[in-house]
């Protein structure tokens, strides 16, 4: 099942004269005093880009929007019938919050606004965005944000309904973005990049949203491999026999409880021409469904465990974007895939598993399965050779407890964790570095093996950190690494907001792409 696509293009025609179904403008909440912030007490201020629309309304547009309840709050969407004042039959004002002093709105503000507006306009085939874009060095980032927001806000998973839904409106098919010069090469390049990256995010969302009976490990591996080959990547897929023979004890142990056997997919991007010699490895957790195994989960909410492969979906999708963007750095993606099921062949608490790098792990909780398959994949990445290793996974409920549902937790080499934080801030996927304390590692000492999966006393204190401490055992000393826990941000179960729709979010595809481009540019 795939989502409908949305196309993007640039236009430099007067927004008031565009032949579209709706024209989107920005509106700020304006302060009314030195201590005021925003909200109903303030007056509205139209953002840059709305000038010709405001003129067509003879200066009455802000008063009309206020009568309709507009406050200019971030993401607020207010629709006004134009009654022929401009070519478009509908003007849509999207809130941008208070006007920033001496600057354009932050890229993430624009990204969320574009997403909210395009999502609210489902059913309108052709929409134009006339949002504030700076004319300085910040212009490319702002345009990229608007383009990404429009494409991601317009996403909707196709779903499985068998009957027509009369109230279900089709996503916007075509989005025009108003810019000063539609022929500008830099602007066109930003649209091309946004199309590639947002397309990858949408693919990641599709994989996460697919029903788990349709995306078991062999099917998931085939879907990723097919897309990767079409993108020009080199593809290697290891089946259950090759995994067993190759010493992938973690992947084999977790996958042996399911009739759908495990897989390891390796995707390789090899740049042409001169590079800085650096190599990047991306690793993503691909548990296509997680019952918890023998240590079975409660039934409440278990259906969301179809999203336990969001890390692998993000890595696979990021590799598709990398193939399109062609950065001057070698990148390899590793996607370990398994289905964690209870059966007569499941791995058990008390088992000792020999991992790919030879370390032996005592299993205490079969629901700590993600770290088992990731340990093998990370050890393989280090054996193949890499300078930087970025791993992402819906690993622990502790991430949600500590940081909520929007901010990822990052653990690993301190310098690389900070680099992840900067990249996340840049693209609107925030992440926060967390420590890997010695006492947490000590609590994972095993009486019979090199390490236990979780705290030997089943103490859940520092639960998120236990995952990072465990994964550190499978990274060689010469490799800088970062573990990105997306247990919260990887799946959005609430109502749509900004450019996030319900279901898979695609986090952290854009962060991974940003990191790869950063390594290509700066080493």
What does this entry look like structurally?
Helix content is 34%, strand content 21%. By secondary structure, it is α/β, with parallel strands linked by helices. The strands form four sheets. Strands 8, 9, 10, 11, 12, 15, 16, 17 and 19 form a nine-stranded mixed β-sheet that branches. Strands 1, 2, 3, 4, 5, 6 and 7 form a seven-stranded mixed β-sheet that branches. The protein has a three-stranded mixed β-sheet with strand order 13-14-18. The chain is elongated, with a radius of gyration of 24 Å. Mean pLDDT is 95; it is low at 33-41.
How many strands in all?
21
Helix content: 25-40%
Give the CA-CA distance, first to last residue.
38 Å
Radius of gyration: 24 Å
- In the predicted model, the low-confidence regions spanning at least 5 consecutive residues are 33-41
Strand portion: 15-25%
Protein name: Probable cytosol aminopeptidase
Subcellular location: Cytoplasm
InterPro entries: Leucine_aapep/pepB, Macro_dom-like, Peptidase_M17_C, Peptidase_M17_leu_NH2_pept, Peptidase_M17_N
Main location: cytoplasm
Q: In a nutshell, what does this entry contain?
A:
The chain is an alpha/beta fold and 523 residues long.
Features:
single chain; 523 residues; alpha/beta; seven-stranded mixed β-sheet; 15 helices; 34% helix; 21% strand
Topology:
Elements: E1 7-11, E2 22-30, E3 43-46, H1 51-56, H2 61-67, E4 77-81, E5 90-98, H3 107-120, E6 126-130, H4 139-153, E7 174-178, H5 185-209, H6 217-231, E8 234-238, H7 240-245, H8 249-255, E9 263-269, E10 279-284, E11 286-290, H9 310-325, E12 330-340, E13 352-354, E14 360-362, H10 370-384, E15 388-393, H11 397-403, E16 408-412, H12 414-427, E17 431-433, H13 438-442, E18 451-452, H14 463-472, E19 480-485, E20 491-492, E21 503-504, H15 509-522
Parallel strand pairs: 1-7, 2-5, 2-6, 6-7, 10-12, 10-15, 11-12, 14-18, 15-19, 16-17
Antiparallel strand pairs: 2-3, 4-5, 8-9, 9-12, 13-14, 16-19, 20-21
Helix pairs in contact: 3-4, 4-5, 5-9, 6-9, 8-10, 9-15, 12-15
GO molecular function: aminopeptidase activity
Domain Cytosol aminopeptidase: 365-372
Protein name: Probable cytosol aminopeptidase
């Amino acid at each position: 099942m795939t989502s409908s696509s949305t196309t993007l293009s640039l236009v430099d025609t007067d927004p008031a004269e565009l032949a579209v179904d709706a024209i989107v403008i920005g509106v700020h909440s304006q302060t009314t005093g030195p201590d005021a912030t925003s909200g109903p007490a303030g007056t509205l201020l139209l953002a840059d880009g709305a000038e010709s629309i405001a003129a067509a309304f003879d200066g009455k547009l802000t008063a009309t929007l206020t009568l309709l309840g507009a406050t200019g709050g971030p993401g607020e969407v207010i629709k006004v019938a134009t009654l022929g004042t401009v070519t478009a039959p509908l003007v849509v004002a999207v809130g941008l919050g208070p006007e920033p002093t001496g600057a354009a709105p932050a890229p993430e503000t624009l990204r969320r606004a574009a997403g909210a507006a395009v999502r609210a306009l489902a059913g309108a085939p052709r929409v134009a965005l006339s949002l504030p874009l700076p004319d300085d060095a910040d212009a490319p980032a702002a345009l990229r944000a608007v383009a990404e927001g429009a494409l991601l806000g317009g996403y909707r998973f196709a779903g499985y309904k068998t009957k027509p839904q009369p109230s279900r409106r089709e996503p916007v098919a075509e989005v025009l973005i108003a810019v000063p010069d539609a022929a500008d090469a830099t602007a066109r390049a930003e649209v091309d990049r946004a199309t590639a990256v947002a397309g990858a995010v949408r693919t990641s969302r599709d994989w996460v949203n697919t029903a788990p009976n349709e995306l078991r490990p062999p099917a998931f591996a085939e879907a990723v491999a097919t897309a990767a080959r079409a993108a020009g990547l080199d593809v290697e897929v290891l089946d259950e026999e090759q995994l067993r023979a190759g010493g992938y004890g973690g992947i084999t142990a977790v996958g042996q409880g399911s009739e759908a056997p495990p897989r390891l997919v390796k995707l390789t991007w090899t740049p042409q021409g001169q590079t800085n010699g650096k190599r990047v490895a991306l690793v993503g957790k691909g548990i296509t469904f997680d019952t918890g195994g023998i240590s079975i989960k409660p039934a409440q909410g278990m259906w969301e465990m179809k999203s336990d492969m969001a890390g692998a979906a993000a890595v696979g999708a990021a590799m598709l974007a990398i193939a399109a963007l062609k950065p001057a750095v070698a990148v390899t993606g590793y996607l370990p895939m398994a289905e964690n099921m209870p059966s007569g062949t499941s791995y058990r608490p008390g088992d000792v598993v020999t991992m790919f790098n030879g370390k032996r792990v005592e299993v205490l909780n079969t629901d700590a399965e993600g770290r088992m398959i990731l340990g093998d994949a990370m050890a393989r990445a280090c054996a193949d050779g890499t300078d930087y290793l970025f791993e992402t996974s819906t690993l622990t409920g502790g991430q949600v407890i500590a940081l909520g549902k929007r901010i990822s937790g990052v653990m690993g080499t301190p310098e690389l964790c900070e680099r992840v934080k900067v990249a996340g801030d840049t693209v609107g996927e925030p992440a926060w570095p967390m420590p890997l304390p010695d006492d947490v590692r000590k609590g994972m000492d095993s009486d019979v093996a090199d390490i236990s999966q979780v705290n030997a006393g089943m103490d859940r204190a520092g639960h998120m950190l236990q995952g990072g401490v465990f994964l550190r055992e499978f990274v060689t000393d010469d490799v800088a690494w970062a573990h990105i826990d997306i247990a919260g941000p990887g799946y959005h179960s609430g109502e749509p907001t900004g450019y996030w729709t319900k279901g898979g979010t695609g986090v952290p595809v854009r962060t991974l792409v940003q990191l790869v481009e950063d390594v290509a540019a700066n080493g």
